[in-house]
Design a protein that fits this description.
- The chain is mainly alpha-helical.
- It folds into two domains: 1-89; 99-231 and 240-257 and 268-326, no CATH class.
- It contains six helices and no strands.
- Helix 1 (2-144) runs antiparallel to helix 2 (160-188) and helix 1 (2-144) runs parallel beside helix 6 (305-331).
- Residues 283-295 have a biased composition (Basic residues).
- Residues 226-334 are annotated as: Disordered.
- Residues 235-244 have a biased composition (Acidic residues).
- Residues 266-282, 296-311 have a biased composition (Basic and acidic residues).
Length: 334
C-alpha cells in the first residue's frame, strides 16, 4: 500500500510538473502575444495618424483644385471676350483700310485735277501774253506793209497753243468725269468721308455737282438716305459745314474754259493792183506756204506751247524786217 501511494504521488508530481511547465509556456506565449498586440496597436495608431494627415492633405488639394477650376472658368470667359473684341477690331481695321484706299484714290484724282488746272491756267496766261505780243507785231506789220490780204478762215489751221489748250481741257474734263464718278460711287456706297480731308472746298472751288454727269449723258444712281454717326470734326473754314460729314450732292458741274482767239485786223484786197502790189502778193503767198510747212513740222514735234509762240513771234519779226527791206529796195529805183 505504501508503495502504491508513493507511486501515485510521483505520478501526480510528474503530472503537476508537466502542467506547471505547460502553464509557464502558456504564460510566456501570452506575454509574447500581448507584446505583439501592443506593437500592432502602436503601428495601428501610427497608421491612423498618417491616414488623418493624408486626408487633411487631400482636403487641401481638393480646395486648391476647386479654386483652380474657378480661375480656369474665369480665364476662359475672359478669353472669349478678348476673342470677340479681337474680331470686332479686325472688322474695324478692314473698314478703315477700305476707307483709306478710297480716300487715297480720291486725293490722287484731286491732285491730278489741281495740277492740270494749274497747267491750264499757266497756258491760258502764256496764250494771252503771246497773243498780245502777236497783236502788237501784226499792227506794226500792217502799218509798214500797205496791203495784207484777207486770210481764208475755213482753211485756217489751229495754233500749237490752241492744240495744247484743247488737250489740257480734255484732260481736265476727263479728270472731272473721274472725280464725279468717284463721288457718285462714294455717295451710292454710303461711305462716310471725314471733313479732315478738306474735299468740300475743292469741289466748291471748281463748281462740281451732280448735274455734270447728267449733262455728259451718264447714268447716276441716287443714294439711299441714312443716319450718319457723329465723329469728332476738325475746325474748318467752310461756313456751310454744319455736319460732321461731307454732303456730296450738288457738287459736280462743268467749268467752262474760255479760249480767246487773237483778233487780227485785216485789210481787204483792192480791186486795182499795181505791179509792185502783185509782186508783194506773190512774196506773201510764198511766206504763207513756208509758214504752213513750218507749222506742220512744229505740230509733229513735241515742244512746249510757250516756246512755239516765241518762235511765231520771231517769225513775225523776221517778216517785218523783210518787208522793211523790200520797201527800201523798191524806194531806191524811184
Amino acid at each position: 500500500d505504501h508503495q502504491q501511494q508513493t507511486y501515485v504521488t510521483k505520478h501526480d508530481l510528474n503530472l503537476l510538473h508537466k502542467k506547471i511547465i505547460a502553464t509557464d509556456l502558456i504564460v510566456q506565449k501570452y506575454q509574447d502575444a500581448n507584446k505583439a498586440l501592443l506593437r500592432l496597436q502602436n503601428e495601428n495608431e501610427d497608421l491612423k495618424q498618417q491616414i488623418e494627415q493624408i486626408t487633411n492633405e487631400c482636403c487641401i488639394f481638393g480646395k486648391q483644385v476647386t479654386e483652380c477650376t474657378q480661375e480656369f472658368d474665369n480665364l476662359k470667359e475672359q478669353l472669349e471676350i478678348s476673342n470677340s473684341e479681337k474680331r470686332e477690331l479686325h472688322q474695324q481695321l478692314r473698314l478703315l483700310q477700305d476707307e483709306n484706299t478710297n480716300n487715297y484714290h480720291e486725293i490722287m484724282v484731286l491732285k491730278q485735277y489741281e495740277s492740270l488746272k494749274d497747267t491750264n491756267d499757266q497756258l491760258s496766261k502764256t496764250v494771252d501774253r503771246q497773243q498780245k505780243q502777236i497783236a502788237k507785231l501784226q499792227l506794226q506789220v500792217q502799218r509798214k506793209s500797205p496791203i495784207i490780204y484777207k486770210a481764208n478762215k475755213d482753211k485756217k489751221e489751229p495754233s500749237e497753243t490752241d492744240i495744247a489748250l484743247t488737250n489740257s481741257q480734255k484732260s481736265v474734263r476727263e479728270l472731272k468725269l473721274a472725280l464725279a464718278r468717284l463721288m457718285n460711287f462714294i455717295q451710292t456706297s454710303q461711305i462716310e468721308i471725314p471733313t479732315a480731308l478738306h474735299i468740300r472746298p475743292v469741289l466748291k472751288a471748281h463748281d462740281i455737282n451732280d448735274d455734270f454727269l447728267e449733262i455728259e449723258g451718264e447714268f447716276i444712281r441716287k443714294p439711299v438716305k441714312k443716319v450718319s454717326k457723329p465723329v469728332i470734326s476738325q475746325t474748318d473754314d467752310d461756313d456751310d459745314d454744319n455736319g460732321d460729314f461731307i454732303d456730296i450732292r450738288h457738287t459736280i458741274e462743268p467749268q467752262p474754259v474760255n479760249i480767246t482767239n487773237s483778233s487780227i485786223d485785216i485789210i481787204e484786197k483792192p480791186s486795182k493792183t499795181s505791179s509792185r502790189q502783185e509782186q508783194k502778193k506773190k512774196e506773201i503767198q510764198k511766206r504763207k506756204s513756208t509758214k504752213k510747212n513750218r507749222r506742220q513740222k512744229d505740230l509733229s514735234t513735241t515742244e512746249k506751247p510757250s516756246t512755239k509762240l516765241d518762235d511765231l513771234a520771231n517769225e513775225l519779226e523776221i517778216a517785218l524786217s523783210q518787208s522793211d527791206q523790200q520797201q527800201q529796195q523798191q524806194n531806191i529805183p524811184q
